[in-house]
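explain this.
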Amino acid sequence: MVDLEKLVEQVKDLVLEAAKFTKVGNYSITEKEGESYNIVTSADVAVQEFLQKGLLELVPGSGFMGEEEDQRDTDKEMCWIVDPIDGTTNFARGMQQSGISVAFRMGKDLVLGVVYNPDLDDMFWGVKGKGSYLNGKRLSVSKKDFEHSIVCTALCLYRKNYADICAKILKEVFLDCADFRRFGVASLEVCYVAAGRADSFFEFRLYPWDIGAAAVILREAGGVIGTIDWSKGGLELSTDLILDAPSPIIASNCCENFHKIGQIVLKHMDTFNPAEYN
């Protein structure tokens, strides 16, 4: 039996150690697949390698999914889901908005999440059924209605062919909410919803490592997170996350705002062919 409250403390310690790799100034930068907007640094790789070794030692027999080098040992009952540096471009440019993200899955459930911003020394964490915290202070979502909401969002950077559908969705959301924010780091943005700094979040295509840890933190703060599911043949708004492939992600401070964005997304995906989503 895994003691999650003990485990989260061990994970936080590992993440703090891993963050030391982000303080080394002479890291290299490489473009993934020759795309100027999709980069990886040697710090990303170093953080992931350190965390993979340490996390697998914490829970022997667990699997590991990491962004870098396509690490996807996900057929185990328990699995770590890691983004070593979410917001790599921000990190490489010294913008102080990036996060080390570690989630732990047991069966189909995300049960533990840690997101750490090394530059601001902000440590978000949550354990299923035990609440979520920022630097020791209990988190709770805002009570803002949609008209007064700040929505974190972005266009689909790594699939620019989705720009048109994203733009249509975002225009309709923008006309009904208070304003947008775009930090370029999904894990932190969902944590900001958990902390009441923002009120909703939407991106058209994210991987499990982008939002796995933050999902636990948001849910434990009283928020809602989910996706658009087409596994049953039609498009449905679902609070069950897809943990083995990219998917649209909607997160909000309450069910009403979650469904508000969800219905807008569904409307504009009405003519979208899910078979083309990748």
In short: The radius of gyration is 18 Å. The CA atoms of residues 69 and 104 lie 19 Å apart. The helical segments are 4-18, 42-58, 88-92, 163-176, 186-194, 208-220, 255-268. The chain has seven helices and 16 strands.
